Amino acid sequence: MDRGLKITGGAQIGWVQASWPLATLSASPSALSISAFLIGSYSFAPEQVVALKPHNSLAIFRKGIRVVHSSRECPATIAFWTFRNPERLLEEIRLSGFLPRGSSTAVPTHHGIPIRWSTIIVVIVVWNGLFLLDGFVPWNAPKAPGLFVLLALALLFATAMSVLRSAAIQSWVLKPGRSVGEIRSLLLFLLLVSGMLLVGFTLVALLGSRAG
Fold first, then answer.
1. Among the three residues 106, 135, 159, which one is the final residue of a domain in this structure?
2. Is residue 9 in some structural domain?
3. Is residue 111 part of a domain?
4. Last residue of a domain, one of 40, 72, 106
5. How far apart are CA 33 and CA 44, in angstroms?
6. Into how many domains does the chain fold?
7. Among residues 3, 43, 4, 6, which one has the least CA distance to residue 21?
8. Shared-domain flag, residues 127 and 101
9. Which residues have CB under 8 Å from 36's CB, separation 6+?
10. CA–CA separation, 76 vs 104, rounded Å?
11. Both 22 and 94 in a single domain?
12. Does residue 138 sit within a domain?
């Protein structure tokens, strides 16, 4: 008899990883889902999954499974690990009723990163330029972040948000034929980190000015 499956573990979604116990794998006859705290949830129908394979990383205990899928809205790398043996995890997924039925010919053949190199270069130049304007150079003593660092973080936050929400911005940032879903987890991670740093550094600056 088929039964649902829900397991806590860690996951890699594209370039972003969530450590145990921040990820969850769920399986049923109709869907396989992997969700990770703050970096989203990804669900696949049996027709979208070509295979489930054992996945080993260099880190100790990170032995799990990798989802070989045909969805163009998801990063190519979708992996999940837990303390179970990968073969046992695969068997539990099978017993849940989820059986891959996707065709290997449907797997996207895109290679390389989906972001245009021109976009990456502009981001790097603007980011480093603002830090230099704020006096962050090797020959200066360490200092508290100033206005230009706050501006760099605000621009990073705004850029990540715009890419997530605007099709026009996506066409400028992504290579032809690529999907924002491939970098969604990275964008969510950048939103989290830049937002937290922006709030933290702003509070430090405000408290420092009052103390002065």
1. 106
2. yes
3. no
4. 106
5. 6
6. 2
7. 6
8. no
9. 11, 13, 16, 18, 22, 23, 24, 185
10. 13
11. yes
12. yes
**Are 47 and 128 part of one and the same domain?**
no
pLDDT of the chain, 212 residues: tens digit per residue: 456 899 999 999 988 989 899 999 999 999 999 999 888 899 999 999 999 999 876 554 567 999 999 998 889 889 999 888 899 999 999 999 999 999 988 888 777 889 999 999 999 999 999 999 998 877 777 777 889 999 999 999 999 999 999 999 999 999 998 999 999 999 999 999 999 999 999 988 787 666 65
- Alpha-carbon distance of 41 to 45, in angstroms, equals 14
Q: Which two tokens stand for residue 184?
A: 């969604």
DSSP 128: H
Report the C-alpha gap between 174 and 212 in whole angstroms: 46
Looking at residue 119, its amino acid is T
Where in the sequence is the domain holding 40, given as residue range(s)? Answer: 5-106
H helix or E strand, kind and range, residue 50: strand 49-56
CA distance linking residue 59 with residue 78, whole number of Å: 17
Single out the residue of 88, 11, 20, 8 nearest to residue 42, CA to CA: 11
Residues 68 and 124 in one domain: no
